Amino acid sequence: MFLRRRIVFIRDVALEPILKLSWDCHNARQGKGEHFMKKRRLSAFVIALALAVGSVFPAFAAEHIVDTSKKGSLTIYKYDITGAGKAGIQAGEPGNGRKDESVENKLKDYAMEGVEFTFLRVGDVDTYSKNGDVKLIYGIPDILEKILGLEKKAATETKDGTCYYTADQIQTAMRNALADNVTTKNRLEDYVKAGEKMTLTDTTGKTTKAGLELGLYLLVETKVPEDVTDTTDPWFVQLPMTDAGGESWFYDVTCYPKNQTGDPTLDKKVKDRADGKSGYKDTVTASEGAALDYQFISKLPHITSTSTYLSKYTFKDTMAKGLRYGENAVLAFYDSAEKATTTNIDNVAGSGAVAVWTKDSGKFTQDYTKNEDESSQMLLGMTKEGLKEINENYSDKYLVVYYTATVRSEESVVTGDKGNPNDVTLEWRRTSDSYYDTQDDKALVYTYGIHLKKTFSDGKGDATQVQFVLQNQTDRYYVKANGTDGVYYVTGKEEERNKATDFTPAADGTLLIHGLEGDTYVLTETHSDQGYSLLKEPLQIVIHGTKGVVSSSAKGTESSVQVTAASATVDGTNAIMEKSSTDPASANALVKMEVQNAKGFSLPKTGGRGLYLLTIAGVILAGTGMMFTTGKRKKDEKTPCVK
């Protein structure tokens, strides 16, 4: 029979008086007093009679009588019914207490390791006879009576202060008590603590306990591994029990309960804080010095009774060495993911969250460390108080972690397609805390640079006398940077030209500008070496940033990134993009370009020798009275001029 989805092995059976007496004999051996001693004597007589006439009454064979000298055993095989269902495997027919190898073979790939069951012998099994109607009844202790909602006045019989009920009464009470009622399951899990814990299920999903006294047992699933979302409803087992045909007793009972399973989710996103147009994405392109908004959203797993409570929920966040934590994480809980995606750390308090936890709430910890490879790490874990609030209130809700970070302005930032990753790993455990699993996700920050080579047409100019200014054409800001000897790292943005950085190449003409977001820029030469012409017009540089799509990982595996490589144009012509100068493994990092200055035309200086020669020539011409009749015609012709 079933209590909701769970197998229960109790049945009302029309029993012969000899069966009644055999159970009374069992009770007498346990010291039930004078009333039972009289029944014991009567039982001995009837059994002897049955043995004497066994050939005439075969129904009185030994297998029809409970052998009270025997012990019983319980064997449980635990399976993941969710996983089996997804594979199209049906759970099968209700069990009958017998070992079923066909079930074991069919569900062996979905065995659940690490589940704990606790059993408690709650009462005796007795027979009740009235007007020729004989049936089994079961003693139920007062506390269990109250949990199940059994009323004493409805008891079939009361003996020595213990109320006895039929199987139908007990099953109905259990079913009603457990109907969408986590409180009842919690109370039963607490009640059974007085019982004995079975060993955790092994890799085949099996646990067993032998040498059990005969009687009525309550079984409760008390610990589960990380992926169980809903425990098996508590159930009763009678030892011994009758076979499916109700014709004989057996003492070794096997149960095949099932679990619903599921995992939390994890999704990490990032965006540029200064960009009010774009929302959170898997990847972002940003300038060095830019402030970033991060969030990761985790849909909490289904939590029912205390056996499914989370015992650990921890995020390990690792940030590339080119990024720096703001060390200001805030947690919020939402009914839906939509509200979370439009919020950042500045306005989370008014975002409609069910609850908001700040670093001073005492409900989570955040610890920051630096790794050997110079990356940094944030370890964010729930405290005992935080786990209690989650377990009791936030099943299936969305937990969002908000924090900020900054792109450093130094060589540790990787330019190009490799990007600057920020990985997060969620580890969670339930009550069977030796068993855990992980989810992984990541976000990436891409940044780029310019590798400019300054040359002179005659090879003699001084590149250190040249200056450029760089402006973002899209957002109309000027680039600000720090640097020496032709190598610069972007530090910020300026609205005014006079506050912008003047970029000067090194003596060999090399100019490196690291840390530009993918966008459109205008490079203007504002100063050249003496005697060399400036560029006629500014150069337009367009950097098409890397497009990265992060694929969510299966639990226990790393997420993957599909990349569309970065590219660039200079004045509309495709440009070569070089590898990163700081990380050769990162391609398409630097826009390669060359700017050459030509020697300017030499003009006479005012008051100099040139003017003096021109004056002498004029005097000579005037003195001779010569006329050049071709002068006017020559003056009217147009001659191309290349600048």
Structural class: alpha+beta
Net shape? elongated
User: Any idea of the CATH class of the largest domain?
Assistant: Mainly Beta
**CATH homologous superfamily assignment of the largest domain:** Immunoglobulins
CATH fold label of the largest domain: Immunoglobulin-like
User: How far apart lie the N and C ends?
Assistant: 97 Å
Q: Mean pLDDT across all residues, rounded? A: 83
* Percent of residues in beta strands: 35-45%
Strand segment count: 43
Tell me the number of structural domains: 3
Q: What is the correct CATH architecture of the largest domain? A: Sandwich
Helix amount: 10-25%
Please give the largest β-sheet: 11 strands, mixed
